[in-house]
Specification:
Blueprint lengths: L25 H13 L13 H25 L16 H10 L6 E4 L4 H6 L4 H9 L22 E4 L7 H14 L5 E6 L6 H12 L4 E7 L2 E2 L2 E2 H4 L16 E5 L3 H16 L5 E6 L17 H8 L3 H12 L4 H24 L22
């Protein structure tokens, strides 16, 4: 692979940084990013016609990053309009976009923990109701009553974010059971963080899914930290893909920051499930650029660790790859940047202008059943 040409503006790589560079030379740091990308061969893929699909994936990763960083701003600035628990997805975008690339709407399901903004946007949620949910407004995807941890869009198979660590993993197995029972050919993508592997629900769900040969992909989004606790301090087995051993299912550890790798591996796993072979277990290794939640001061990380991790920014990696393939240039990238910025700005305006829920909404959507029970 040839070095990046001079036409590339190195400052572009920093538009999606979650912080400012303290000291040092931007150009030299940029070349460090390029060199890190170049020395990783990545996965050989055949580009689509004129690179349309690839550019859409890059655009979506950019949208997610812009959405999350604007969420951070709205949460922290005076006159706070977003409250409650809030967990940002910056740095992990390749996983959501990779899964969405093979997700079959109308057949498949996706269950998630509480870091759920990116997956929802990748599956097609309009940023307006997404932002409105963060603002607690009636136009939000959960009517303003769920907030950051409870994004849902059931009509596309997005079965939402869940606030209790590991509690949604059995729900993913249940949805997979429905797919098998109804013979729909669907697969359930069940995402959870590395901290969830220590929950009893994790082990119970894996065991049952394997016994019943359910079409579910268990996906650890391993960002290396269970809140603020490193994997080495909470898991006796450091290779988390091995936590799926003992349940008679394929397990694999993959690069979760390379969207092409994610697509390839998840497609193979989905094909395996759709063929009736049962579940698969994937540990996707990634890195979150922000804290666990908005109250996290990130004191457990060194500056050097954070800078090294940003050399593997999934947006930077994919942008560079598309430029090398000749399907992305400065003008197109600039247009994409402007587009996502405008969309997020409109989402914030929409959310701010939407009404708060009426007090009567407190007593609605609590249970699905109608009482007294009637057949």
């Amino acid at each position: 692979m040839q070095p990046l040409k001079v036409h590339m503006n190195p400052t572009k790589l920093y538009r999606y940084r979650t912080d400012a560079i303290e000291g040092g030379n931007r150009e030299s740091h940029y070349m460090a990013v390029v060199n890190e990308v170049e020395k990783r061969p990545g996965l050989k893929v055949t580009p689509s016609v004129a690179g349309n699909d690839e550019r859409k994936r890059l655009w979506m990763m950019m949208l997610i990053r812009r959405f999350e960083e604007r969420t951070y701003q709205e949460y922290t600035k005076p006159g706070q309009r977003i409250g409650g628990f809030c967990h940002l997805y910056s740095g992990q975008e390749a996983l959501a976009v990779g899964a969405a690339a093979i997700f079959q709407k109308g057949k498949d399901y996706l269950f998630n923990g509480y870091r759920d903004h990116g997956h929802s946007l990748a599956l097609g949620m309009d940023p307006k109701p997404a932002m409105a949910e963060l603002f607690g407004r009636t136009t939000g995807c959960s009517k303003g009553k769920g907030g950051s941890m409870h994004f849902f869009q059931a009509e596309v198979g997005n079965m939402g974010g869940h606030g209790i660590v590991g509690a949604h993993i059995p729900l993913g197995a249940g949805a997979a059971f429905a797919c098998k029972y109804k013979k729909t050919g669907g697969v359930c993508f069940t995402f959870f963080g590395d901290g969830a592997v220590n929950q009893g629900t994790h082990n119970e769900a894996l065991n049952l899914a394997s016994l019943l040969k359910l079409p579910v992909i268990f996906i650890i989004e391993n960002n290396g930290l269970a809140m603020g606790t490193q994997v080495a301090r909470h898991s006796a087995e450091k290779d988390l893909s091995k936590r799926g051993l003992g349940y008679a299912m394929p397990t694999k550890s993959i690069d979760g920051n390379d969207v092409d790798v994610v697509i390839s591996e998840l497609k193979a796993a989905a094909d395996y499930c759709r063929a009736g072979n049962g579940p698969t277990y994937i540990c996707a290794n990634t890195y979150r650029f922000r804290g666990h939640s908005m109250s996290d001061p990130l004191k457990y990380r060194t500056k050097e660790e954070a800078e090294k991790a940003r050399l593997r920014d999934p947006i930077t990696i994919y942008e560079h790859r598309l430029r090398e393939k000749g399907v992305l240039d400065d003008a197109t990238f600039e247009e994409m940047e402007n587009d996502v910025a405008a969309i997020v700005n409109e989402a914030v305006q929409f959310a701010d202008q939407s009404p708060h829920p009426d007090v009567s909404e407190m007593y609605k959507d609590i249970l699905a059943e109608q009482y007294p029970l009637q057949k």
